[in-house]
Design brief:
224 residues, alpha/beta, seven-stranded parallel β-sheet, two-stranded parallel ribbon, binds adenosine-5'-triphosphate
Length: 224
């Protein structure tokens, strides 16, 4: 099956404050490994489980748009930045499921650090009814496949859900978990913001188009 006919759609939620090559490389590799038709980058408006983002939702969405411009499989999905109040991934997945119908398989992508905290998410068990979960290893964070280190509740919910190959995801339309092979890149938005405010270079940690946008709009320099 060619990718354009694939019924698998990726969703990559995040603060993207700013988007960087850690995000982009994971997205590219997951698209390729699973054969996704598209990857939808969904910047959170106001995330619940962390401090407020530094850049506005509009700036963060614009940076995602600048970063993905040349990749026809990457799509910006602005539903969470347009929605008032706290961003809940489960709401976006419910909406996508309704919009796209039951024949689509949604694959929600997250780093190992985010997965470890999944049981703190709003209506987290419902995620398994709506999508598969695709995990990317992240340097400095325990690998999610080390099941012994998972919080008890999460470990119990996930026991029967792990699949060891991308083709295993075809066994069901939701509810499976796959750790995708991805290139470990020790890049974080926090480190990028810190470097910018210290006037250090962040070139090659994120696309030039995003860096140009940051400079043009004086983001993260303490002047915004
Ligand atoms: P911050 O440093 O501000 O917390 P971040 O770099 O973690 O930001 P987010 O936008 O919060 O970026 O991350 C969105 C998603 O991407 C999360 O699921 C996170 O785990 C994952 N992610 C971000 N950077 C990486 C990376 N370098 N490797 C693997 N996963 C990553």
């Amino acid at each position: 099956m060619s990718k354009s006919e694939s019924s698998f759609i990726g969703i990559f939620g995040g603060t993207f404050d700013p988007i960087h090559y850690g995000h982009l490389r994971i997205a590219e590799e997951v698209v390729e490994t699973i054969g996704l038709r598209e990857m939808r980058f969904t910047p959170a408006g106001m995330p619940r489980l962390r401090y407020a983002p530094i850049a506005s939702p509009q700036h963060r969405a614009a940076m995602v748009q600048a970063a993905i411009r040349n990749n026809p499989r990457f799509v910006l999905d602005e539903r969470e930045t347009h929605r008032p109040g706290t961003s809940y991934s489960v709401e976006s997945l419910r909406e996508l499921r309704q919009e796209m119908g039951e024949n689509i398989t949604l694959c929600f992508v997250m780093g190992a650090d985010a997965f470890m905290k999944l049981a703190e998410w709003h209506s987290w068990r419902e995620l398994f009814r709506l999508c598969h979960i695709i995990i990317a290893a992240r340097p400095g964070h325990v690998l999610a496949t080390d099941h012994d280190v998972l919080p008890q509740e999460l470990k119990e919910e996930c026991t029967q859900r792990w699949v060891s190959s991308a083709s295993g995801l075809e066994c069901a339309s939701s509810g499976l978990i796959y750790v995708a092979p991805t290139t470990p890149l020790d890049i974080s938005a926090t480190a990028i913001r810190t470097r910018i405010s210290a006037k250090s270079s962040v070139r090659y940690l994120l696309p030039d188009a995003v860096l140009d946008y940051i400079e043009m709009n004086h983001l993260y320099s303490g002047k915004e």
